[in-house]
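TA notes, week 10

Several of you asked for a full example with nothing omitted. So below is the full record: structure tokens for the whole chain, then the designed sequence directly under it. When grading your own attempts, check the secondary structure regions first.
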């Protein structure tokens, strides 16, 4: 059977609400939430039957029951996920915490886990194992596989939550399903992100963010382009990551693994450019929680804050310059790009910038490509993806990944830890086909197309 040609049939559709509903309330978006356009992101977790304890005598129905019951419980502390996003009188989004519930589908797929083409998630995962969200803030699908395995797929509205928030939610959901004490108690105190008085204008933010109303229509060259963004998943061995880090570091200054990887990817994509004057934009997602710790209030760690606390600084260099640049030089540019945003002052300025422009919606500039761009990509470190903690009572996943085909012309790349916990990475990539093909040609020794040999298929694997 063609590994993408399988059928998913729905066994049951429910709406799961919080078991203890909170009174209906409106949760405003913070200024940092308001920087997110309407975008959904997905996460999926694959469980292999051989990792289940035979003594538990688990049936697919009993596992789905455990997942669903725990979902109703986890929606009590994470109540925004059971709500919906509505517009207020200013035309801005806000969270109506109404306990309208989460769409929950129990499905069956006539394919085995080892046959799933995870290298091509657009055809094997999107809309099949990760649901397309039709309403609300979160949708869940649990799919039985032919081999007795199970896939949990979730789709989140990014305007309500970032990856850190989703990771907290998944960890807590798994803990509740095993009746374990929970690690995280989320809080939603938007007052931690109030602007300064008066808000201060910072020109550096003007270089990173732009009002949607000021973006020109896409140039004809982009409109008629035959290329489009595709998703692929790769596996990178720990020794390759270490090698890139060694080559990117200099004079006793060690670059981080994510900086080294990003610089290598940036340079590799430039290799495919023929017009040396065109630019290649590289954005790096920076989490502001650690940077805003001085805003924390008593007993409230920002590590438990639910919402978006992100900035996306970017740097741009021409194809010609990147081709002639060493990896060390590229990594230095990546480091300085991240460094300028990884401060309390940067996030305070970003909060103020949004305040000065409200209610006009804004977006990060790297998401807006133009005719002068060879490429634009955003790298988001998924190194805190807690895949090995996501045990719902029948072992840890054989595989887990984000799935984020976010549209537009800008690529998105997310490296995550392998379930094997040996330093290997799983990398989700959503790039132009020509750039994916280029990576596989120029860097085939680093980016290995994901296949079943990379799954953690047994307890002792």
């Amino acid at each position: 059977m063609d590994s993408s040609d399988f059928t998913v049939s729905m066994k049951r559709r429910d709406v799961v609400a919080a078991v203890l509903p909170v009174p209906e309330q409106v949760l405003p978006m913070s200024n940092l939430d308001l920087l997110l356009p309407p975008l959904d992101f997905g996460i999926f977790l694959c469980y292999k039957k051989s990792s289940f304890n035979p003594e538990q005598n688990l049936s697919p129905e009993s596992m789905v029951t455990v997942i669903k019951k725990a979902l109703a419980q986890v929606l009590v502390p994470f109540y925004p996920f059971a709500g919906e996003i509505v517009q207020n009188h200013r035309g801005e989004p806000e969270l109506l915490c109404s306990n309208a519930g989460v769409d929950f589908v129990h499905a069956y797929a006539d394919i085995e886990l080892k046959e799933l083409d995870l290298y091509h998630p657009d055809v094997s995962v999107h809309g099949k194992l990760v649901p397309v969200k039709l309403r609300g803030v979160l949708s869940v699908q649990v799919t039985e596989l032919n081999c007795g395995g199970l896939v949990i797929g979730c789709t989140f509205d990014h305007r309500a939550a970032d990856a850190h928030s989703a990771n907290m939610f998944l960890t807590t959901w798994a803990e509740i399903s095993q009746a374990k004490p929970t690690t995280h108690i989320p809080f939603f105190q938007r007052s931690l992100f109030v602007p300064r008085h008066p808000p201060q204008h910072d020109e550096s933010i003007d270089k990173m963010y732009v009002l949607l109303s000021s973006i020109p229509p896409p140039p004809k060259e982009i409109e008629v382009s035959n290329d489009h963004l595709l998703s692929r998943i790769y596996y990178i061995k720990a020794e390759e990551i270490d090698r890139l880090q060694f080559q990117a570091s200099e004079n006793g200054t060690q670059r981080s693994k994510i900086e080294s990887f990003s610089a290598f990817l940036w340079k590799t994509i430039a290799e495919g450019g023929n017009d040396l004057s065109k630019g290649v934009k590289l954005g790096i997602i920076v989490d502001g929680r650690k940077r805003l710790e001085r805003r924390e209030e008593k007993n409230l760690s920002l590590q438990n804050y639910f919402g978006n606390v992100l900035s996306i600084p970017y740097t741009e260099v021409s194809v010609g310059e990147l081709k002639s640049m060493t990896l060390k030089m590229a990594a230095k540019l990546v480091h300085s790009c991240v460094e300028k945003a990884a401060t309390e002052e940067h996030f305070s300025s970003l909060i103020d910038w949004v305040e000065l422009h409200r209610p006009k919606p804004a977006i990060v500039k790297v998401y807006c490509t133009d005719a002068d761009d060879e490429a634009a990509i955003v790298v988001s470190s998924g190194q805190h993806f807690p895949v090995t903690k996501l045990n719902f009572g029948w072992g840890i996943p054989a595989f887990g990944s984000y799935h984020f085909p976010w549209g537009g012309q800008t690529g998105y790349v997310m490296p995550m830890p392998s379930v094997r916990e040996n330093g290997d990475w799983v990398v989700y990539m959503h790039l132009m086909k020509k750039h994916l093909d280029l990576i596989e040609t120029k860097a085939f020794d680093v980016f290995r197309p994901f296949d079943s040999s990379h799954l953690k298929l047994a307890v002792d694997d």
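Residues 49 and 149 are 5 Å apart (CA to CA). Use that as a sanity check on your answer.
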